[in-house]
């Protein structure tokens, strides 16, 4: 699949899940596996360590995501320029397609979030580790303070909830497993 093929299939509001092999990614997947087994009682599944939302800016597709340096919106071409194999990436799309108004809204929400000083939520990653081992969330609730620091799955869930409230039960607690199994999304063939 070429980048142009991928771009022709994506629409604003689609969510990407990516598996990478950085040290942080491996740690995230380790705790996700515990969460998958112990909390969600799911059979083995491929685990992803990063999420992003596809947005539209002036007719061009971009990726909105939480990176170590904070929230970023980057051109899709830039994000995927070196990809030749999409086997470590899946795309989810809302089961009930976003209207043009909803596509515009999620794009605006993500871009506006990226313009604020929003740090990467390293503490949230630690809270995720505690959740996977104890079943208890000790981090902040949703909204307000929680939105000043976001990690990738939390950002994706927060933006989706701004378009369709309650798409994700608890955005501040959301991890890539929760994104992948969300009942309001389906796998898009890429």
Low-confidence stretches: none
- Major sheet: 6 strands, antiparallel
Category from helices, strands and their pairing: alpha+beta
CA-based shape: globular
Amino- and carboxy-terminal Cα gap? 8 Å
Say how many strands there are: 8
How many domains, in number, for the residues?
1
Instruction: Write the H/E string, N to C.
Output: HEHEEEHEHEHEHHE
Arrangement of strands in the largest sheet: 4-3-2-1-5-8
- Mean pLDDT across residues: 85
Outline the fold blueprint.
Layout: H1 3-9, E1 15-18, H2 23-39, E2 50-57, E3 60-67, E4 70-75, H3 76-79, E5 89-94, H4 100-115, E6 119-120, H5 122-134, E7 149-150, H6 152-163, H7 176-180, E8 185-188
Parallel strand pairs: 6-7
Antiparallel strand pairs: 1-2, 1-5, 2-3, 3-4, 5-8
Walkthrough of the structure:
The protein is built from 7 helices and 8 strands, in the order αβαβββαβαβαβααβ. It is α+β, with helices and mostly antiparallel strands. The strands form 2 sheets. A 6-stranded antiparallel beta sheet has the order 4-3-2-1-5-8. The protein has a two-stranded parallel sheet with strand order 6-7. The longest helix has 17 residues. The model has no long low-confidence stretch (mean pLDDT 85).
Quick description:
With 190 residues, the chain is of the alpha+beta class. The protein is built from seven helices and eight strands, in the order H-E-H-E-E-E-H-E-H-E-H-E-H-H-E.
Core attributes:
endopeptidase fold (from Nostoc punctiforme); 7 helices; 190 residues; alpha+beta; 39% helix
